[in-house]
Amino acid sequence: MTSNAPATPVLDIARIEALLDASFPQIHSGGRNLVIEQVGHHTACVRLKTQARNIRPGGTVSGPAMFTLADFAVYVAIIGNLGESGIEAVTTNMNINFLSKPEPRDMTAHVRLLRLGRRLAVGEVEITSDGSPDMVAHAIATYSLPSQR
Amino acid sequence: MTSNAPATPVLDIARIEALLDASFPQIHSGGRNLVIEQVGHHTACVRLKTQARNIRPGGTVSGPAMFTLADFAVYVAIIGNLGESGIEAVTTNMNINFLSKPEPRDMTAHVRLLRLGRRLAVGEVEITSDGSPDMVAHAIATYSLPSQR
Amino acid sequence: MTSNAPATPVLDIARIEALLDASFPQIHSGGRNLVIEQVGHHTACVRLKTQARNIRPGGTVSGPAMFTLADFAVYVAIIGNLGESGIEAVTTNMNINFLSKPEPRDMTAHVRLLRLGRRLAVGEVEITSDGSPDMVAHAIATYSLPSQR
Amino acid sequence: MTSNAPATPVLDIARIEALLDASFPQIHSGGRNLVIEQVGHHTACVRLKTQARNIRPGGTVSGPAMFTLADFAVYVAIIGNLGESGIEAVTTNMNINFLSKPEPRDMTAHVRLLRLGRRLAVGEVEITSDGSPDMVAHAIATYSLPSQR
């Protein structure tokens, strides 16, 4: 990283995973399918590994699986950029557009935080399927942030 | 039903369940937790039975579980009112607001179809927890409808 | 009102109008087309009077006009139920669905506050055209509430 | 443009403006404040010139003005990329997040079409104020496209 690089996030991937495992063991109840691949300044990248439970007949990934991926990815970006107090952030609104039918493959969510304020965080999520450049879903999530920070 | 009652839906609960079991066996992969309680003229009511996988520490039901409930409930209302062709309806947009922290109990989704057109259906969903009158979540889902009808 | 009636709102229509005239004279810059018809416990009803500027060729009311009506109506419900401090509430999110083409007539927005919390208010809006029972638009607006209350 | 450039849009700015003037003269009823600055492959850029009617006390641009800008900008991107038939496209849904208080200056909407299908178009809009890099609003608009194309 050069001296012109944006600030590094507060927590790295290992620390975020440890926090999540301690606070939300249920997240990975179906197996470790949500993998944090990158956390940066106001950004994050999370992979959803394919699993039979999420595949519908006709071979597409389910809407709820994509919702979970988007929600989790924004949460990761918030924790990575706010620090430990971000664990208490809660989703207040999610708007998700399903743009095209995804292949039954791994999916990746790229998050950009549009706003990281005192009370609210707003994250934009682009979801793509492995092997295709087309966006399969796009979401905007709003999180309410903990007050004591 | 009196002669002034609105039209009955096209399919009853048993027929809807049979269609779903045949087309989407994965829906109930985690157990039959989504129970169709009522289907009426442009309405539906679906219960989500509590399960450990959906409960977060602190005893609340997860956002993804509520998304799944809302999505499924609108889908049921569409199939019940359109008929078998409704099986091919796909979610294009979901906007969900999480209003208050739900208790770790069963939840119910009440659906009202705001629009059931030629190409699009829009359903409004109110989600409540057993034992409390307060709405825990509110959603608006838009579905694209199959073209040959 | 009977003894079982919900609490009355904090401010009546006259007081709300006076507050708005003092703080936001621009609201009525195009003429007094937004008329507060009713304010109740977590509810409000506002009329948008038809005007040439809002009518598109083909005789329908414009999307921006409906957005303005929905936004204003939720704001009125908040001020009426919170009191004067509600003037400082600001819209953070609006999700609006346009359901059917409206007639070039007056429109009415019926608001129900789904949530009136410490930090956020969420209002649901149903918009209808005079002379027709069908909903022409449906919106959910989220407002951030002032902190000192 | 190099040989690697994406396809040019179907209509250029002058043609789009002529179409809009013929079909929707009311758009500019308050003066020509919406200026098309650029139309590209699945993109567009539109400027909203500042005017007293849109400025609230405290010097910020109104929510409805930003909604109008976003809606118009996506519409321009659709017409520019579909051709004349795009004039019949109608907004079915708009989700807009107001991220920070804008200065009382000109605003610019940058549009990227996330989807331009057979029936639906989905456009993402980033709105910024002159003189500041921060996004003041972000919107996702869904349009229903005319069937005979």
Outline the structure in words.
Helix content of chain A is 21%, strand content 38%. Chain A is built from 2 helices and 8 strands. In chain A, the strands form 2 sheets. A 6-stranded antiparallel beta sheet of chain A has the order 1-2-6-7-8-5, with helices on one face. In chain A, strands 3-4 form a two-stranded antiparallel sheet. The model of chain A is unreliable at 1-5 (pLDDT under 50). Chains A and B meet through strand 3, helix 2 and strand 5 of A and strand 3, helix 2 and strand 5 of B. Strand 5 (90-98) of chain C pairs antiparallel with strand 5 (90-98) of chain D, so a sheet runs across the interface.
Question: Which key phrases capture this entry?
Answer:
2 helices; 149 residues; 8 strands; 6-stranded antiparallel beta sheet; homotetramer; two-stranded antiparallel ribbon; disordered N terminus; alpha+beta
Q: Residue ranges of chain A: pLDDT <50 for 5 or more in a row?
A: 1-5
Q: For the largest interface in this structure, which chains are involved and how many residues does each contribute? A: A-B, 28 and 28 residues
Measured as a percent range, the helix fraction of chain A is: 10-25%
Mean pLDDT of chain A: 87
Number of helices of chain A: 2
Elements of chain A, N to C (H/E): HEEEEHEEEE
Total beta-strand segments of chain A = 8
Characterize the main sheet of chain A: 6 strands, antiparallel
Distance between the termini of chain A: 29 Å
Helix- and strand-based class of chain A?
Answer: alpha+beta
Shape of chain A: globular
| Strand order of the biggest β-sheet of chain A | 1-2-6-7-8-5
Question: For the CA atoms, what is the radius of gyration of chain A?
Answer: 15 Å
In quaternary terms, these chains amount to homotetramer
